[in-house]
């Protein structure tokens, strides 16, 4: 990886860390541990959507296993699923080290970036869809309900709902760092999106549409709405993490790939 790509990868990682920690630090209900080597977020629920660990070194080496074992054991003892995020090459020793600790590879995403000034969001939007920033605690709950619908009837779905039903979630109203957006058709909330305003970038997350409403352009409309909102508030870099299936959508909008992001999990260790 070139020096420029490493800097961009660190930018994407820093934005993700801001996303993972901003509410946790504000709430007083969650636990955040930060060291020179890693960051660990315990959201207080058995949810690997929000229980995250991020490794900060260039590579995870065999000599680092003790630190990672500590984090894995922390969540295992609580019987909490967790996700460890790595922005390093899967062919490096990072992959083998994490596998040796019993962590399974759960998913691979593509980190991407674009310059906000160069983007031209599509302003077309389905007439029936109304997009807006959340404005009440009830709308935050509805936001969480759309995200939870991605997990079906699983325990993870219930915990995602609980996360956005916590009293601390109300702190996200008019939040300066984490802004939530919803799309409504009449009175039904059908889509979501999130912007994270980190010091050096704006991140796009949580673009989701209820399954029964897909294929109607709601996800694309939300994405372009978020781009417009980001440009309204900030210049500079915009970052996101795309699934391999969705990378071409973002490329057509002006985003360039930076690196792979591998997510490891401990869920199987709790069974």
Automatic annotation (TrEMBL):
<dbReference type="Pfam" id="PF00583">
    <property type="entry name" value="Acetyltransf_1"/>
</dbReference>
<dbReference type="InterPro" id="IPR016181">
    <property type="entry name" value="Acyl_CoA_acyltransferase"/>
</dbReference>
<dbReference type="InterPro" id="IPR052523">
    <property type="entry name" value="Trichothecene_AcTrans"/>
</dbReference>
<dbReference type="GO" id="GO:0016747">
    <property type="term" value="F:acyltransferase activity, transferring groups other than amino-acyl groups"/>
</dbReference>
<keyword id="KW-0808">Transferase</keyword>
<dbReference type="InterPro" id="IPR000182">
    <property type="entry name" value="GNAT_dom"/>
</dbReference>
<protein>
    <submittedName>
        <fullName>Acetyltransferase</fullName>
    </submittedName>
</protein>
<feature type="domain" description="N-acetyltransferase">
    <location>
        <begin position="129"/>
        <end position="271"/>
    </location>
</feature>
